[in-house]
Amino acid sequence: MKLESMVKPEVRTQPVYEPGKPIEEVARELGLDPAGIIKLASNENPFGPSPKAIAAAQAALLQGELYPDGGCFVLRRKLAEVWGLKPEQFVIGNGSNELLELVGHAFLRPGDEVVMGNPAFVVYKLVTLLFGATPVEVPLVNHCHVLADLAAAITPRTRIVFVPSPNNPTGTSNAEAELLAFARALPEHVVCVFDEAYAEYLETPPDLRPLIAEGRPVICLRTFSKIYGLAALRVGYGYASAEMAALLNRVRQPFNVNAIGQAAAVAALDDREFTDRCRRENRTGMAQLGEGFKRLGLEFVPSVGNFILVRVGDGGRVFDALQRRGVIVRPVKSYGLPEWIRVTVGTREQNERLLREMAAARV
Ligand SMILES: *Cc1c(COP(=O)(O)O)cnc(C)c1O
Fold this sequence. Notes:
With about 375 residues, the protein is of the alpha/beta class.
C-alpha cells in the first residue's frame, strides 16, 4: 500500500514550518566565512545566555548519563517562587512550541475551530491543522490584534483562541486591561492561550494571574528562548490552574525537557541583572534601528518586542541581497507581508552593520 494513502489526511496536507537558516548553512551555500555572518532572523538574544546559565549547563553536562528529572521539580519550584504560584500550576515544554502542541493534543478534535490573528505566529495554524481542526484567521488592523474582532469570530465550535502579546511578526501588544476583559468575556467552552514569548521585553508585562485565580480556562506561555538566550536548549513553560497544568502534563512525553536545559533555566531565573540589561540594550537597539530606517526612508512598525518589521519593497529580494552580504534576516512573505522583512534587534555593532548593508544594497 502507498504510504500516501495510509497516512492520516491531516498529515498529508500539513504545511511545513520553514525555520531561519543557521549561520553555518548560509556560509556553506554562499561560500562565505561564517565568522563574518550575523543572524538577525529568529529573535534570538544577541547577548547569548546569562553566564550563570552557561555555568549551570556545563555543570549539568557532567551528569549527562542520567535521565533528566521528568517532573522538572527544581524548575517548577523555582518558577512557583518567582510567580507566587504553586509548582503544580506549571507545565514545562521542549520550548513553548511543544506547549502549543500539547494544548492541541489535550483539546482539539477534527471539526473544532481555532481562532487566531493574521499575521500571527505560524505555529498556531500548524498545530490546528495537525489535529484536523479549522483555523479561523482574524485580520489584524494596523498590525495590531483587535480583541473585539477575535471575540466576534468565536462560535459554538471554537475550542481555542490564541492571543500573542507581543505578537510575532508584528511586535505589537495589547494592554493588560484589554487582555483581562477579553478572557473574562469568553464563553466557557473556549480555552484561551496567551503567548507571552516576548513579555520579558516589556517594561511592565501584563499580569494575567487574576484570570487563573478566577478559575478561567486560560494558559499563559513563556519561553527561555528569547530574553534568556537559551533557544538551543529548548525550554518553555506554561502557567495556569493546577487542573489545566495537570491535563497538559498528562499528554507530554515523560522526559520532554532535557537536564541541561532545566539546569540552565533555573540559573537564568536567578540572573535578573542579565535580563534587565538585555531589556535596556534592546530598547536602545530598537531606537537605533528606528532612526536608521527613518534615515533610509523606510516605513516600520513600532515594536515592543526584540524584533521589528520594516517595509523594503520586495522582501524576498532584499532578504537575498542582505544574505549575500552576510546578514541573515527573515522574509515574511509567508505571513502575507511580501513587502516587509523582520529584523531582530542585535548588538549596537550588529545593528550598525545591518543598516550599512541595507544602505549598500540600496534597499
Ligand atoms: C519564539 C516564539 C515562541 C517560542 O518558541 P520556543 O519553542 O520556546 O523556542 C513562541 N511564540 C512566539 C510568538 C514566538 O515568537
